[in-house]
Design goal:
By secondary structure, this protein is mainly α. Helix content is about 40%, strand content about 10%. Helix 7 packs across helix 8 (about 200-220). It is globular and about 55 Å long. It starts with about 45 loop residues before the first helix and ends in a 12-residue tail after the last strand.
Length: about 240
């Protein structure tokens, strides 16, 4: 049997002062590899998930079901422990984010090259931001919106449904928050009338996010061989007949 590996076997990766009372929040996950690729306010702590699975004595060969899998906290923890998992998510964007995070076995060099190709292609893109909704214009400075639009157009032109394409899509998606000047309320509701003090340059944010993804890919690949997760896009109330026996 493959040795059971946990996401938290490296003490240097643990968030400081992690407490059980924060098990229902995603905040500590933003210090953890892969989990931190996208801030998901409805998520909960990965360490809490691991503690529960260890408590239950879940082992390889068993399957952990999460009918509301969200951005993938449970399957990622299961992957780090070598445990099979099945997740269901009804929101198309959230399901896509979850599936993309589980592409952690992708070769980092392929991701880096695809990101470079996207950046190179932005140089030949003529951006037109006039058709964006007013809320978008209120949420981004014109210069930032123009570059983000170029990134999007370049990605669309190069997208080929490969793992590296999806990982770069997630990098682009994840920087929308940090490059927006709009404030946010609880659960990340946009407050366009309030502005943030710190807004990242889109190019810098994109390059930093790619570097984070590359680092996390290498880290996870040193801990586990492959993903053991299956994610179903759909309504958990109606998918029962499709569960593998």
């Amino acid at each position: 049997m493959q040795q059971q590996l946990t996401l938290f076997d490296d003490p240097t990766l643990l968030p400081p002062n992690l407490k059980a009372s924060r098990s229902g929040t995603f905040v500590d996950n933003m210090s953890l590899p892969i989990h931190r690729w996208f801030r998901y306010s409805a998520g909960f702590a990965a360490m809490w998930v691991e503690e529960i699975l260890l408590d239950w004595g879940i082992q390889q060969g068993q399957v952990v079901l999460d009918p509301f899998v969200g951005s993938g906290t449970v399957p990622l923890v299961c992957d780090s422990m070598g445990i099979n998992s099945l997740g269901v998510e009804a929101h198309p964007i959230v399901a896509r984010i979850c599936k993309t995070k589980l592409l952690w076995d992708t070769e980092p060099v392929r991701v880096r090259q695809f990101a470079r190709d996207v950046l190179q292609r932005t140089k030949g893109v003529n951006s037109d931001i006039s058709n964006y909704p007013q809320l978008i214009h209120k949420s981004f400075d014109p210069e930032s919106l123009i570059f983000l639009d170029r990134l999007k157009s370049a990605w669309i032109a190069l997208s080929d449904e490969s793992a590296e394409s999806e990982l770069v899509w997630l990098a682009l998606t994840s920087i929308l928050r940090s490059t927006s000047k709009a404030g946010t309320a609880q659960w990340q509701y946009i407050l366009p009338k309030k502005t943030k003090k710190k807004v990242l340059n889109p190019l810098l944010a994109f390059e930093q996010q790619i570097d984070i993804i590359l680092s996390d890919l290498r880290w996870m690949q040193s801990k586990a061989e492959r993903s053991y997760a299956k994610i179903i896009f759909g309504d958990a109330r109606t998918f029962a007949d499709t569960i593998p026996q």
